[in-house]
Design brief:
Elements (H helix, E strand, L loop, with lengths): L5 H4 L9 H5 L2 H5 L2 H4 L19 E3 L11 E3 L5 H4 L5 H13 L6 H14 L1 H13 L1 H6 L9 H36 L6 H10 L1 H30 L3 H16 L5 H6 L5 H14 L1 H35 L8 H38 L6 H5 L14 H19 L5
Antiparallel strand pairs: 1-2
Helix pairs in contact: 6-17, 7-10, 7-17, 8-10, 8-17, 8-19, 10-11, 10-12, 10-17, 10-19, 12-13, 12-15, 13-16, 15-16, 16-17
Amino acid sequence: MTDAGGPPERPTPAPEPTAPAESTSPSSAEAPPPRAASPLRPPPPPAFGPPPPPAFLRVGGSGPEGPATPVPQPPPTAEVLAIPLGPRRLVGMSLDLLTRPDAGLRSASFYIGLILLVTVAPAVALFGSAVASGAADALAGAGPGTPLPAWAWWLLLALAPASLGFIAGGVEARALATAIIGGRAEGRPLRLRESIAVSRARFWPVLAAEVLVGALSLAVEFVLNGLLGAAIGGTDVLGYGVSVLVGIVVGMPFIYATPGIVLGEAGAVEALRRSVRLARTRVRLAFAVTLFSVLSGLVVQFGLGLAVDTVSRVVSGAGLADHFPPALAVLLAAALVFAYGTLVLLAEAIAAAPAVHAFVALTHYTGGLELGRRRPLGGRRAWEPWFTPGLAAVAALALASLVIGVLAMPLG
């Protein structure tokens, strides 16, 4: 190779061997070198049959109409590449996005408020009517062998749809907030119908991931409280501190689970595994995001508790507790539950924003949002797409329990 290499090698351009490598990755030529090639990009979502190549994204999943079509994944947008990986700057950027008037959270908060209004509010209104009419006092003064009145049985029945609605509203709020923030983070905001389509498609995996992480947190918290209680005695302050510590330590490895499901199109278990791997790559970032998420949730809970305590003190101090019309109790309960539902979405958005931005910055992947863009929810009727058949059935049961319970109550 060296005997004839002198003269022939001069006319041969040196960069020739590197030209094919550049042409095989057109997206890397458009993005900055340090951030364009991300080794943390998650693989495509699991599908039935052989998986597609890593460079493709399966949109929409497989169904009766056949398997989804592999679509070339677009390169990361400039907004995605501009997300910093420093904890302080990333959290600041995520909070700045939430404070913008076009953040897209207002209409979504009304949607979550509607879910809680038709499921949780009837039980709260029925209990408030019992308190305002004095029926609850008569029940409290009854002996242990006294049978429950008819309205109390209807209240117990109303608690079933209230529990289902409370759980569904929380999961839907987390998935919906993740989809909205993910669209804003990549510079391609989703419409509300598109965000709801994504959140409904990822509802069960998000719920499964929350159940798994919650069960692990409760088990660790139970063991720690037992050990500390046996050693130094248990107190409320100690138990509260243990719950916060467990939330940070146990939640840190799984902080990217929900973005991994909503944006990364992974299942519940796979999203937890990927979250652990992402958290290991930048431990400081994962710790800062988890700390912010836990503390923001505690602040919101403290504010809600303070607001409820203030309202109860005003009602009792003004003497309205003994002269409160039952009909007004129903309206007040509906207004308070709807307001609480809107705050649930905002609280989930505040807690999820840093995690979503960190996930997008680490993986450059938001392919899960394409499901909403390609198949947004529609509807020709006024209640579509806000009510699913399941939500309508649960709401009908809750409303029937409220009406029959109020009619069976001795309001005089």
